[in-house]
Amino acid sequence: MALSPEVRLLCDEVRRFIRDEVEPRSRWIEEHDAIPDDLVKLARDMGLFGLTIPEEYGGSGLDLAGKCAVEEEMGKTNYGFATLIGNHTGISTAGIVALGNAQQKQKYLPRMASGEWIGSFALSEAQAGSDPAAMGTTAVKKGDRYVLNGEKIYITNAGLAHVFTVMAITDKTKGIKGISAFIVERGCSGFSVGKNELKMGMHGCTTAPLAFSDCEVPAENMLGAEGMGYVQALKTLTAGRVTVSARCVGMMDKLIAQCVGYMKMRTQGGKKLAEYQGLQWMLADMAVSRDAARGLTQRAIETLMHGGRGTMEASTAKLYATEALGRVVDAAVQIHGGMGYMREAGIETTYRDARIVRIYEGTSEIQRNIIAAQLLKDD
Fold this sequence. Notes:
The protein is an alpha+beta fold. It folds into 3 domains: 5-114, Acyl-CoA dehydrogenase/oxidase, N-terminal domain (Butyryl-Coa Dehydrogenase, subunit A, domain 1), CATH 1.10.540; 119-227, Butyryl-CoA Dehydrogenase, subunit A, domain 2 (Beta Barrel); 231-376, Butyryl-CoA Dehydrogenase, subunit A, domain 3 (Up-down Bundle), CATH 1.20.140. Helices cover 52% and strands 15% of the residues. The protein has 13 helices and 10 strands. The protein has a 4-stranded mixed sheet. A hairpin with a 2-residue loop joins β9 and β10 (271-272). α5 runs parallel beside α6 (91-99). It is globular and about 80 Å long.
Protein backbone atom coordinates (compact mmCIF):
# COMPACT_ATOMS: atom_id res chain seq x y z
CA MET A 1 0.00 0.00 0.00
CA ALA A 2 1.45 3.37 -1.04
CA LEU A 3 2.21 5.77 1.80
CA SER A 4 1.45 9.47 1.67
CA PRO A 5 4.34 11.94 1.43
CA GLU A 6 3.53 13.03 5.00
CA VAL A 7 3.89 9.49 6.35
CA ARG A 8 7.12 8.92 4.40
CA LEU A 9 8.49 12.15 5.89
CA LEU A 10 7.44 11.03 9.37
CA CYS A 11 9.21 7.70 8.87
CA ASP A 12 12.36 9.56 7.84
CA GLU A 13 12.14 11.63 11.03
CA VAL A 14 11.60 8.53 13.16
CA ARG A 15 14.60 6.88 11.48
CA ARG A 16 16.80 9.87 12.34
CA PHE A 17 15.44 9.98 15.89
CA ILE A 18 16.26 6.30 16.35
CA ARG A 19 19.78 6.76 14.96
CA ASP A 20 20.64 9.91 16.89
CA GLU A 21 18.74 9.55 20.16
CA VAL A 22 17.51 6.02 20.87
CA GLU A 23 20.37 3.81 19.66
CA PRO A 24 23.07 5.67 21.66
CA ARG A 25 21.00 4.98 24.81
CA SER A 26 19.98 1.43 23.92
CA ARG A 27 22.68 -0.33 25.96
CA TRP A 28 21.89 1.86 28.98
CA ILE A 29 18.18 0.99 28.68
CA GLU A 30 19.01 -2.70 28.45
CA GLU A 31 21.28 -2.69 31.50
CA HIS A 32 19.16 -0.43 33.73
CA ASP A 33 15.74 -1.75 32.63
CA ALA A 34 14.47 1.81 32.35
CA ILE A 35 14.02 4.49 29.72
CA PRO A 36 15.78 7.80 30.45
CA ASP A 37 13.42 10.67 31.26
CA ASP A 38 15.09 12.90 28.70
CA LEU A 39 14.44 10.34 25.96
CA VAL A 40 10.75 10.17 26.92
CA LYS A 41 10.64 13.97 26.78
CA LEU A 42 12.23 13.97 23.32
CA ALA A 43 9.63 11.44 22.18
CA ARG A 44 6.89 13.72 23.55
CA ASP A 45 8.34 16.75 21.80
CA MET A 46 8.46 14.80 18.55
CA GLY A 47 4.79 13.83 18.88
CA LEU A 48 5.38 10.08 19.06
CA PHE A 49 2.75 9.60 21.77
CA GLY A 50 0.03 11.06 19.57
CA LEU A 51 0.60 9.09 16.38
CA THR A 52 -2.84 7.48 16.23
CA ILE A 53 -4.88 10.10 18.10
CA PRO A 54 -7.03 12.33 15.85
CA GLU A 55 -5.65 15.74 14.97
CA GLU A 56 -8.54 17.52 16.69
CA TYR A 57 -7.18 16.19 20.00
CA GLY A 58 -3.57 17.09 19.27
CA GLY A 59 -2.39 13.89 17.60
CA SER A 60 -1.23 12.97 14.12
CA GLY A 61 -4.26 10.85 13.23
CA LEU A 62 -2.28 8.09 11.50
CA ASP A 63 -4.30 5.32 9.90
CA LEU A 64 -3.29 1.66 10.22
CA ALA A 65 -0.93 1.81 7.22
CA GLY A 66 0.86 4.82 8.68
CA LYS A 67 1.04 3.26 12.15
CA CYS A 68 2.53 0.06 10.72
CA ALA A 69 5.08 2.02 8.70
CA VAL A 70 6.27 3.69 11.91
CA GLU A 71 6.21 0.36 13.78
CA GLU A 72 8.47 -1.13 11.13
CA GLU A 73 10.99 1.63 11.81
CA MET A 74 10.58 1.17 15.57
CA GLY A 75 11.41 -2.51 15.14
CA LYS A 76 14.94 -1.49 14.23
CA THR A 77 15.76 -0.06 17.66
CA ASN A 78 15.53 -0.81 21.39
CA TYR A 79 12.54 -3.07 21.90
CA GLY A 80 11.58 -1.65 25.30
CA PHE A 81 11.35 1.86 23.90
CA ALA A 82 9.46 0.63 20.83
CA THR A 83 6.98 -1.18 23.10
CA LEU A 84 6.40 1.89 25.27
CA ILE A 85 5.39 3.91 22.21
CA GLY A 86 3.67 1.06 20.35
CA ASN A 87 1.49 -0.03 23.27
CA HIS A 88 0.47 3.53 24.09
CA THR A 89 -0.39 4.43 20.50
CA GLY A 90 -2.00 1.03 19.89
CA ILE A 91 -4.33 -0.87 22.20
CA SER A 92 -3.97 1.63 25.06
CA THR A 93 -5.49 4.55 23.16
CA ALA A 94 -7.46 2.78 20.41
CA GLY A 95 -10.38 1.97 22.70
CA ILE A 96 -10.86 5.59 23.76
CA VAL A 97 -10.53 6.80 20.16
CA ALA A 98 -13.03 4.25 18.86
CA LEU A 99 -15.52 4.00 21.73
CA GLY A 100 -15.09 7.08 23.87
CA ASN A 101 -17.87 9.65 24.04
CA ALA A 102 -17.18 13.33 23.45
CA GLN A 103 -16.53 14.01 27.13
CA GLN A 104 -14.13 11.09 27.52
CA LYS A 105 -12.20 11.99 24.39
CA GLN A 106 -11.86 15.61 25.41
CA LYS A 107 -10.68 14.69 28.89
CA TYR A 108 -8.11 12.04 28.00
CA LEU A 109 -6.94 12.22 24.40
CA PRO A 110 -5.20 15.64 24.38
CA ARG A 111 -3.06 14.68 27.37
CA MET A 112 -2.39 11.24 25.93
CA ALA A 113 -1.43 12.76 22.58
CA SER A 114 1.13 15.00 24.26
CA GLY A 115 2.52 12.11 26.29
CA GLU A 116 1.65 13.86 29.56
CA TRP A 117 -0.55 10.85 30.31
CA ILE A 118 0.67 7.44 29.15
CA GLY A 119 -1.87 4.71 28.47
CA SER A 120 -2.07 1.04 29.40
CA PHE A 121 -4.45 -1.79 28.50
CA ALA A 122 -5.43 -4.30 31.21
CA LEU A 123 -6.96 -7.61 30.14
CA SER A 124 -4.73 -10.53 31.22
CA GLU A 125 -5.22 -12.38 34.49
CA ALA A 126 -3.53 -15.38 36.08
CA GLN A 127 -6.39 -17.68 35.04
CA ALA A 128 -7.59 -15.67 32.06
CA GLY A 129 -4.80 -15.07 29.59
CA SER A 130 -5.95 -16.80 26.44
CA ASP A 131 -9.41 -17.44 27.94
CA PRO A 132 -11.09 -14.10 28.76
CA ALA A 133 -14.31 -15.89 29.74
CA ALA A 134 -12.44 -17.08 32.85
CA MET A 135 -11.83 -13.49 33.95
CA GLY A 136 -12.22 -12.88 37.69
CA THR A 137 -12.14 -9.09 37.87
CA THR A 138 -15.67 -7.83 38.51
CA ALA A 139 -17.42 -4.48 38.26
CA VAL A 140 -20.63 -4.09 40.26
CA LYS A 141 -22.77 -1.00 39.78
CA LYS A 142 -23.66 0.90 42.94
CA GLY A 143 -25.54 4.11 42.28
CA ASP A 144 -23.51 6.33 40.00
CA ARG A 145 -20.37 4.21 40.34
CA TYR A 146 -18.95 0.79 39.53
CA VAL A 147 -16.97 -1.03 42.20
CA LEU A 148 -14.07 -3.04 40.76
CA ASN A 149 -12.43 -6.00 42.49
CA GLY A 150 -9.77 -8.33 41.10
CA GLU A 151 -6.22 -8.50 39.77
CA LYS A 152 -4.48 -8.17 36.41
CA ILE A 153 -1.02 -9.43 35.51
CA TYR A 154 1.72 -8.66 32.97
CA ILE A 155 0.31 -5.23 32.16
CA THR A 156 2.56 -3.33 29.75
CA ASN A 157 3.35 0.33 30.56
CA ALA A 158 1.79 -0.09 34.01
CA GLY A 159 4.73 1.51 35.79
CA LEU A 160 4.44 4.75 33.81
CA ALA A 161 0.77 4.86 32.89
CA HIS A 162 -1.82 7.31 34.16
CA VAL A 163 -4.78 6.04 32.11
CA PHE A 164 -5.74 2.35 32.14
CA THR A 165 -8.35 0.70 29.93
CA VAL A 166 -9.54 -2.12 32.20
CA MET A 167 -11.71 -5.11 31.32
CA ALA A 168 -14.05 -6.37 34.06
CA ILE A 169 -17.09 -8.62 34.29
CA THR A 170 -20.40 -6.82 34.75
CA ASP A 171 -22.60 -9.89 34.10
CA LYS A 172 -21.19 -13.34 34.90
CA THR A 173 -24.03 -15.11 33.08
CA LYS A 174 -23.07 -13.83 29.64
CA GLY A 175 -19.47 -15.02 29.26
CA ILE A 176 -17.36 -12.68 27.13
CA LYS A 177 -20.50 -10.66 26.34
CA GLY A 178 -20.67 -9.80 30.02
CA ILE A 179 -17.26 -8.07 29.98
CA SER A 180 -17.23 -4.27 30.03
CA ALA A 181 -14.43 -1.73 29.60
CA PHE A 182 -13.60 1.05 32.05
CA ILE A 183 -11.20 3.96 32.10
CA VAL A 184 -9.36 3.89 35.41
CA GLU A 185 -6.94 6.63 36.41
CA ARG A 186 -3.79 6.10 38.43
CA GLY A 187 -4.36 7.23 41.99
CA CYS A 188 -7.97 6.09 42.04
CA SER A 189 -8.90 4.87 45.54
CA GLY A 190 -8.65 1.09 45.81
CA PHE A 191 -6.41 0.79 42.73
CA SER A 192 -2.73 -0.07 43.00
CA VAL A 193 0.12 -0.88 40.62
CA GLY A 194 2.61 -3.56 41.68
CA LYS A 195 6.38 -3.59 41.24
CA ASN A 196 7.96 -3.87 37.81
CA GLU A 197 8.47 -7.49 36.78
CA LEU A 198 11.96 -8.67 35.84
CA LYS A 199 11.69 -10.02 32.31
CA MET A 200 13.74 -12.10 29.89
CA GLY A 201 13.70 -9.25 27.38
CA MET A 202 11.81 -6.06 26.54
CA HIS A 203 13.92 -4.23 29.10
CA GLY A 204 13.02 -0.60 29.68
CA CYS A 205 9.30 -1.09 29.22
CA THR A 206 7.56 -1.63 32.55
CA THR A 207 5.36 -4.69 33.09
CA ALA A 208 3.50 -4.93 36.38
CA PRO A 209 0.40 -6.40 38.07
CA LEU A 210 -2.66 -4.32 38.96
CA ALA A 211 -4.93 -4.78 41.97
CA PHE A 212 -8.48 -3.52 42.47
CA SER A 213 -9.90 -3.60 45.99
CA ASP A 214 -13.34 -1.97 46.16
CA CYS A 215 -12.06 0.48 43.56
CA GLU A 216 -14.84 2.96 42.83
CA VAL A 217 -14.97 4.19 39.25
CA PRO A 218 -17.53 6.77 38.07
CA ALA A 219 -20.21 5.23 35.83
CA GLU A 220 -19.33 7.75 33.14
CA ASN A 221 -15.92 6.07 32.90
CA MET A 222 -17.43 3.02 31.24
CA LEU A 223 -16.04 2.83 27.73
CA GLY A 224 -18.76 2.00 25.21
CA ALA A 225 -21.86 0.02 26.12
CA GLU A 226 -22.12 -2.32 29.09
CA GLY A 227 -21.20 -5.88 28.18
CA MET A 228 -19.47 -4.84 24.97
CA GLY A 229 -15.97 -4.22 26.33
CA TYR A 230 -14.28 -7.39 25.16
CA VAL A 231 -16.32 -7.66 21.97
CA GLN A 232 -15.11 -4.18 21.01
CA ALA A 233 -11.60 -4.93 22.28
CA LEU A 234 -11.32 -7.75 19.74
CA LYS A 235 -11.29 -5.13 16.99
CA THR A 236 -8.47 -3.32 18.77
CA LEU A 237 -6.57 -6.57 19.24
CA THR A 238 -6.96 -7.42 15.56
CA ALA A 239 -5.29 -4.17 14.51
CA GLY A 240 -2.72 -4.61 17.29
CA ARG A 241 -1.68 -7.96 15.87
CA VAL A 242 -0.96 -6.33 12.53
CA THR A 243 1.23 -3.67 14.12
CA VAL A 244 3.17 -6.37 15.99
CA SER A 245 3.74 -8.06 12.64
CA ALA A 246 5.05 -4.81 11.17
CA ARG A 247 7.46 -4.37 14.07
CA CYS A 248 8.72 -7.92 13.53
CA VAL A 249 9.43 -7.04 9.89
CA GLY A 250 11.53 -4.11 11.06
CA MET A 251 13.42 -6.33 13.49
CA MET A 252 14.18 -8.79 10.70
CA ASP A 253 15.36 -5.92 8.50
CA LYS A 254 17.87 -4.89 11.14
CA LEU A 255 19.07 -8.45 11.75
CA ILE A 256 19.64 -9.06 8.04
CA ALA A 257 21.60 -5.81 7.72
CA GLN A 258 23.74 -6.79 10.71
CA CYS A 259 24.45 -10.20 9.18
CA VAL A 260 25.32 -8.75 5.77
CA GLY A 261 27.78 -6.34 7.38
CA TYR A 262 29.38 -9.04 9.50
CA MET A 263 29.65 -11.55 6.64
CA LYS A 264 31.37 -8.98 4.44
CA MET A 265 33.81 -8.02 7.19
CA ARG A 266 34.62 -11.31 8.97
CA THR A 267 37.33 -13.57 7.54
CA GLN A 268 37.44 -17.29 8.31
CA GLY A 269 39.59 -19.94 6.66
CA GLY A 270 41.22 -17.40 4.40
CA LYS A 271 38.03 -15.93 2.90
CA LYS A 272 35.11 -13.73 3.85
CA LEU A 273 32.08 -15.34 5.46
CA ALA A 274 30.08 -13.88 2.58
CA GLU A 275 31.83 -16.35 0.25
CA TYR A 276 30.55 -19.45 2.06
CA GLN A 277 27.52 -20.90 0.30
CA GLY A 278 26.05 -22.34 3.49
CA LEU A 279 25.89 -18.90 5.08
CA GLN A 280 24.60 -17.37 1.85
CA TRP A 281 21.67 -19.79 1.96
CA MET A 282 20.95 -18.90 5.59
CA LEU A 283 20.91 -15.24 4.65
CA ALA A 284 18.64 -15.93 1.68
CA ASP A 285 16.16 -17.81 3.90
CA MET A 286 16.16 -14.87 6.33
CA ALA A 287 15.28 -12.48 3.51
CA VAL A 288 12.51 -14.74 2.22
CA SER A 289 10.99 -14.96 5.71
CA ARG A 290 11.17 -11.16 6.09
CA ASP A 291 9.58 -10.52 2.70
CA ALA A 292 6.81 -13.07 3.24
CA ALA A 293 6.01 -11.50 6.62
CA ARG A 294 5.90 -8.07 5.03
CA GLY A 295 3.51 -9.32 2.33
CA LEU A 296 1.14 -10.91 4.83
CA THR A 297 1.22 -7.78 6.96
CA GLN A 298 0.38 -5.61 3.96
CA ARG A 299 -2.51 -7.92 3.05
CA ALA A 300 -3.93 -7.57 6.56
CA ILE A 301 -3.53 -3.79 6.47
CA GLU A 302 -5.34 -3.50 3.15
CA THR A 303 -8.15 -5.81 4.28
CA LEU A 304 -8.80 -3.80 7.44
CA MET A 305 -8.46 -0.42 5.76
CA HIS A 306 -10.94 -1.41 3.05
CA GLY A 307 -13.57 -2.31 5.62
CA GLY A 308 -12.98 -6.06 5.84
CA ARG A 309 -13.18 -7.82 9.17
CA GLY A 310 -9.56 -8.93 8.78
CA THR A 311 -9.61 -11.49 11.59
CA MET A 312 -7.97 -14.27 9.63
CA GLU A 313 -5.58 -11.96 7.77
CA ALA A 314 -4.37 -10.36 11.01
CA SER A 315 -3.90 -13.70 12.75
CA THR A 316 -2.07 -15.13 9.74
CA ALA A 317 0.28 -12.16 9.62
CA LYS A 318 0.90 -12.23 13.36
CA LEU A 319 1.50 -15.98 13.44
CA TYR A 320 3.87 -16.01 10.48
CA ALA A 321 5.79 -12.81 11.28
CA THR A 322 6.43 -13.66 14.92
CA GLU A 323 7.54 -17.22 14.21
CA ALA A 324 9.62 -16.06 11.23
CA LEU A 325 11.37 -13.57 13.50
CA GLY A 326 12.30 -16.45 15.82
CA ARG A 327 13.94 -18.30 12.93
CA VAL A 328 15.69 -15.19 11.63
CA VAL A 329 17.17 -14.12 14.95
CA ASP A 330 18.35 -17.68 15.62
CA ALA A 331 20.09 -17.72 12.25
CA ALA A 332 21.62 -14.31 13.00
CA VAL A 333 23.18 -15.66 16.20
CA GLN A 334 24.53 -18.66 14.27
CA ILE A 335 26.04 -16.51 11.51
CA HIS A 336 27.81 -14.37 14.12
CA GLY A 337 29.08 -17.46 15.93
CA GLY A 338 30.54 -16.76 19.36
CA MET A 339 30.17 -13.03 18.79
CA GLY A 340 26.42 -13.51 18.37
CA TYR A 341 26.22 -14.90 21.89
CA MET A 342 28.00 -11.90 23.38
CA ARG A 343 26.24 -8.69 24.40
CA GLU A 344 28.71 -6.62 22.40
CA ALA A 345 27.05 -7.41 19.06
CA GLY A 346 23.52 -6.80 20.32
CA ILE A 347 22.17 -9.93 18.62
CA GLU A 348 21.58 -11.73 21.91
CA THR A 349 19.47 -8.81 23.11
CA THR A 350 17.22 -9.11 20.07
CA TYR A 351 17.15 -12.89 20.58
CA ARG A 352 15.65 -12.38 24.05
CA ASP A 353 13.32 -9.58 22.96
CA ALA A 354 11.97 -11.59 20.04
CA ARG A 355 10.63 -14.40 22.22
CA ILE A 356 7.74 -12.38 23.64
CA VAL A 357 6.05 -11.71 20.29
CA ARG A 358 4.84 -15.30 20.04
CA ILE A 359 3.06 -14.87 23.38
CA TYR A 360 1.47 -11.45 23.77
CA GLU A 361 -1.41 -10.04 21.73
CA GLY A 362 -2.56 -13.65 21.35
CA THR A 363 -0.21 -16.65 21.44
CA SER A 364 0.75 -18.54 18.30
CA GLU A 365 -1.60 -21.30 19.40
CA ILE A 366 -4.51 -18.87 19.70
CA GLN A 367 -3.73 -17.51 16.22
CA ARG A 368 -3.88 -21.06 14.85
CA ASN A 369 -7.23 -21.56 16.59
CA ILE A 370 -8.57 -18.37 15.02
CA ILE A 371 -7.32 -19.30 11.54
CA ALA A 372 -8.75 -22.81 11.77
CA ALA A 373 -12.09 -21.46 13.02
CA GLN A 374 -12.30 -19.08 10.08
CA LEU A 375 -11.55 -21.90 7.64
CA LEU A 376 -14.12 -24.25 9.18
CA LYS A 377 -16.98 -21.84 9.82
CA ASP A 378 -20.19 -22.28 7.87
CA ASP A 379 -20.86 -19.67 5.20
